[in-house]
Amino acid sequence: MAVLFVAVLVLLLLVLCLSSALLLRWNEVRFSKKKGLPPGTMGWPIFGETTEFLKQGPNFMKNQRARYGSFFKSHILGCPTVVSMDPDVNRYILMNEGKGLVPGYPQSMLDILGKCNIAAVHGSTHKYMRGALLSLISPTMIRHHLLPTIDHFIRTHLCNWDSQIIDIQLKTKEMALLSSLKQIVGPESGSISGAFMPEFFKLVLGTLSLPIDVPGTSYRRGFQARKSIVSILRQLIVKRKESKESHLDMLGYLMNTEESNRYKLSDDEIIDQVITILYSGYETVSTTSMMAIKYLHDHPKVLQQLREEHLAIRARKKPEDPLDMDDLKSMRFTRAVIFETSRLATIVNGVLRKTTQEMEINGELLLFKCNVNFRFYLLFW
């Protein structure tokens, strides 16, 4: 009986290994029949090489480049992808946007951020949404609203860090999200931040996952978190409409229906833009802030010079006076530190584009025709 059980188990393992090998081979053959594709591997059907990509991070791309060169194919985040790490090809593609190429973000990101977010729309709609968002960071808005709001928030927030050991990665993430939330919804951020933060963290994880809507997956948790966030924001919008009070924050500007406002958005469009603003600034600001602290810790002379510049500015002002635009313009060394941190700690190291038609990518650089529905991942390493 035991021998029979072992024999059946071995047989099942052999069948499983054979099936896995056949599936991998079938997926490779399926894509190898498409003419003009660069070398590379496609992994499993549906899943592709997403698991390796998410686990290994940058090392996955470096290993593939070592095997196949600076231009190779893969299958990540639910979509066949052509990865380019060639500066000339990347420059050509970016200079020819609109000619068969549009932003091509992962389906999970498009689903969770909303169908009206600026990354999901093209043409005249994209231009309209872009204008609405740019109106939120006009010089007048920065001078009279954003800068004072950020100054007050950072002072208050950093007071809670005094005399304790903190997790700088966690704290910078909280700071980035709460600061953005404060700028968007003003004083009401305090009442919704407790329910908002954990849902937002789930949303972020869901955007970089396979778009498989099954209980327990990051995608399902991210999508459920989006529903919770939409509910919070919709209640806030309804409350503001009923009160008919004017609010000098980003949400107030987006909800403005006066003739002076060129960009009038629906409630769904406003909610998607708010989620997009929070999402786009969350990881970039938090990681850059964390790395700036790390670099300053490693270079005490730079930290001392930075401190001297800020103490000189504070010496000209009363303790309660906020920073203004003139103070920012005088921070020459601070600006250099920011630029150097951005150079060393590149957060956004690539962009995604997708093809809308069969096309040839600059025959002099690359004799390659890309099939419709392939996505480009341009890496700047």
TrEMBL record:
Metal-binding in keyword set: yes
Xref: SUPFAM superfamilies: Cytochrome P450
Q: Which UniProt keywords apply?
A: Iron, Metal-binding, Signal
> Is DNA-binding set as a keyword in this record?
no
Any idea what this protein is called? Uncharacterized protein
Taxonomic lineage from the root: Eukaryota, Viridiplantae, Streptophyta, Embryophyta, Tracheophyta
Spell out the family assignment given in the record's similarity comment: Belongs to the cytochrome P450 family.
Q: Which GO terms describe its biological process?
A: brassinosteroid biosynthetic process; brassinosteroid homeostasis; sterol metabolic process
Q: Which GO terms describe its molecular function?
A: heme binding; iron ion binding; monooxygenase activity; oxidoreductase activity, acting on paired donors, with incorporation or reduction of molecular oxygen
Q: Which InterPro entries match?
A: Cyt_P450, Cyt_P450_E_grp-I, Cyt_P450_sf
| Superkingdom of origin | Eukaryota
- Which range is the signal sequence, renumbered to this chain? 1-21
